[in-house]
């Protein structure tokens, strides 16, 4: 009968709380989607809860104009670069933190944390000058490197959390069996923490994707991200609300697509691998 | 886990060290350099000592921005933490509802920050936004462009919309780690709903709540993009937080000296907060 006295999460109306909260979350997003299917005349002219004359014109503008769709390509390039660099650099470091004690390890870990917490606004100007000096302004690699500021520490923390869950006996057995460190790491260890690598990559992807301040400061035209292009929808004929809304909806899509795969790890990621 | 002492581990950390040194240490040195010098252009610099720090620490504008930012962070914590706990307690524990809730609730966290701003900018407009239009139809005078209080409410509600899910997800992760046996024991003892929360759920959530409070405090303390898009810091200076003020000085007016001095003061505050975060985290790690 132990099963029968299972504890109920809350009263009978508990589903109502989640439902109301989710409606609150989805209403503003719905409004953006709603606007993206309307003509500008309808947006500014008549107030309607759903598109009266649904149109794909706003999306067509984005998909046919290179200055728009290049923004998405630019964003994807630097986000992919950043994710690759961050995870590759963080893998050995996280292993070191999870397995060994070494001179200054705690200080180093703390220093990494301060970079995750550092306000990008502090770095905007020096970054601009540093990357100007190297001639890297308006390149994808500049933004990718700049975003390493907060993504590398994050990846180290998340991976360290996952690696600490793997028993140390596995390493020792492998070394006794004659594996060298690189071969052990790639052949045995990485498959064991595959889900951790996936989660770390997802969080690097996400934080690079949502960041605007540094990405905007370091680019002018050739590598300009979509989020910065969105700020220029004001034209002579007034604000192009429909295209703005469509561009916004398209930036939500990538996150919405991959979120299902990490739903159980998302709390762990935000908690820096500490749940 | 027992760790071995091995200084060769430094070689494994080296890539991270170089990468972060390039993207953090060198820029910070530039900032320090500017904060003690004055320039009249043409790359001619003059030693200015601590003048800029004097200016910043005596400027009303900086203190006002700091106060606004602290007030903002305080309001955010006071709203998001209790709300997040409440929602996490009421989330379904099993069945199809779990993934649906997790995915839908996490959605705002994955939207680019300036799009979050755009969404609320549009949503709150009286002429074309659902929220603004509804409020106007109800006869409430609401205009976030003109009225400082309305601007504040908009920015706060936007942040609650954007980040409460983080608190919910963390608390939920803490809650599902409580074994059923605890609840069964409470049931046998005839514990009330409140005592279950106070003596079982809250202690188990302590750790994740700590993370939630510190993360929300720090992220709200350096908020930039969302209020910048919605209000641009206005009306007047009413929503000009520290980051917005700093970017205005550094990139807008190109006042290198004052901006650098301000960056350092700002960074020292963050460093202090990070230290508190780290100490609290490692001591709670030791407890477990």
Features:
heterodimer; A: 275 residues; mainly alpha; MetI-like fold; 2 domains; two-stranded antiparallel ribbon; 14 helices; 70% helix; disordered N terminus; B: 288 residues; 12 helices; 3 strands; 3% strand; globular
Describe it for me?
The complex is a heterodimer of chains A (275) and B (288). With 275 residues, chain A is mostly helical. Chain A has 2 domains: 9-55, no CATH class; 65-270, MetI-like (MetI-like fold). Chain A is 70% helix and 2% strand. Chain A has a two-stranded antiparallel ribbon. In chain A, a hairpin with a 2-residue loop joins strand 2 (234-235) and strand 3 (238-239). Chain B has 288 residues and is an all-alpha fold. Chain B has a domain at 62-254: MetI-like (MetI-like fold, Orthogonal Bundle). In chain B, helix 2 (51-57) packs across helix 12 (256-287), helix 3 runs antiparallel to helix 9 (193-221) and helix 11 runs antiparallel to helix 12. Chain B is globular and about 75 Å long. Chain B starts with a strand and ends with a helix. The chains are: A mainly alpha (275), B mainly alpha (288). Chains A and B meet through helix 1, helix 4, strand 1, helix 5 and helix 6 of A and strand 1, helix 1, helix 3, helix 4 and helix 5 of B.
């Amino acid at each position: 009968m132990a099963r029968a006295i299972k504890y109920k999460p809350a009263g009978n109306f508990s589903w109502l709380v989640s439902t109301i909260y989710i409606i609150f979350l989805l209403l503003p997003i719905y409004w953006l989607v709603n606007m993206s299917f309307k003509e500008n005349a309808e947006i500014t002219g008549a107030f309607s809860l759903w598109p009266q004359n649904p149109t794909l014109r706003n999306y067509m503008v984005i998909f046919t104009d290179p200055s728009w769709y290049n923004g998405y390509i630019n964003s994807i390039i630097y986000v992919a670069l950043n994710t690759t660099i961050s995870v590759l650099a963080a893998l050995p470091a996280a292993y070191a933190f999870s397995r060994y004690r070494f001179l200054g390890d705690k200080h180093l870990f703390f220093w990494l944390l301060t970079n995750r917490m550092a306000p990008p606004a502090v770095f905007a100007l020096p970054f601009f000058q540093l990357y100007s000096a190297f001639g890297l302004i308006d390149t994808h690699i500049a933004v990718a490197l700049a975003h390493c500021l907060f993504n590398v520490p994050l990846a180290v923390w998340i991976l360290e959390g996952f690696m600490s869950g793997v028993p140390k006996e596995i390493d020792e057995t492998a070394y006794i069996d004659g594996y060298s460190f690189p071969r052990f790491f790639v052949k045995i260890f990485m498959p064991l923490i595959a889900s951790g690598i996936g989660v770390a990559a997802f969080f690097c992807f996400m934080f690079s994707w949502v960041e605007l301040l540094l990405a905007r400061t370091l680019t002018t035209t050739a590598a300009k991200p979509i989020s910065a292009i969105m700020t220029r929808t004001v034209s002579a004929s007034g604000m192009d609300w429909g295209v703005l809304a469509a561009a916004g909806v398209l930036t939500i899509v990538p996150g919405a697509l991959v979120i299902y795969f990490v739903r159980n790890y998302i709390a762990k990621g935000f908690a820096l691998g500490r749940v | 886990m027992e760790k071995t002492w091995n200084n060769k581990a430094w070689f494994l950390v080296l890539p991270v060290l170089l990468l972060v040194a390039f993207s953090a240490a060198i820029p910070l040195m530039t900032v320090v350099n500017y904060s003690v010098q004055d320039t009249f252009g043409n790359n001619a610099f003059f030693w200015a000592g601590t003048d800029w720090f004097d200016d910043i620490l005596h400027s009303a504008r900086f203190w006002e921005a700091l106060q606004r930012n602290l007030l903002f962070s305080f309001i955010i914590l006071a709203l998001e933490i209790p709300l997040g706990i409440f929602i996490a307690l009421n989330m379904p524990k099993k069945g199809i509802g779990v993934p649906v809730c997790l995915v839908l609730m996490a959605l705002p966290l994955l939207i680019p920050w300036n799009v979050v701003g755009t969404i609320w900018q549009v949503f709150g407009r009286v002429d074309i936004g659902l929220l603004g239009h509804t409020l106007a139809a109800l006869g409430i005078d609401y205009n976030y462009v003109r009225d400082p209080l309305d601007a504040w409410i908009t920015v706060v509600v936007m942040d609650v919309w954007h980040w409460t899910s983080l608190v919910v997800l963390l608390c939920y992760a803490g809650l599902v780690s409580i074994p059923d046996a605890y609840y069964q024991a409470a049931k046998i003892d005839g514990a009330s709903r409140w005592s279950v929360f106070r003596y079982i759920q809250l202690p188990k959530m302590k750790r994740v709540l700590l993370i939630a409070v510190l993360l929300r405090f720090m992220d709200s303390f350096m908020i930039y993009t969302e209020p910048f898009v919605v209000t641009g810091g206005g009306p007047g200076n009413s929503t000009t937080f520290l980051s917005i003020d700093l970017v205005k000085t550094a990139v807008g007016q190109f006042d290198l000296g004052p901006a650098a001095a301000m960056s350092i003061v700002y960074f020292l505050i963050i460093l202090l907060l990070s230290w508190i975060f780290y100490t609290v985290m490692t001591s709670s790690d030791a407890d477990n």
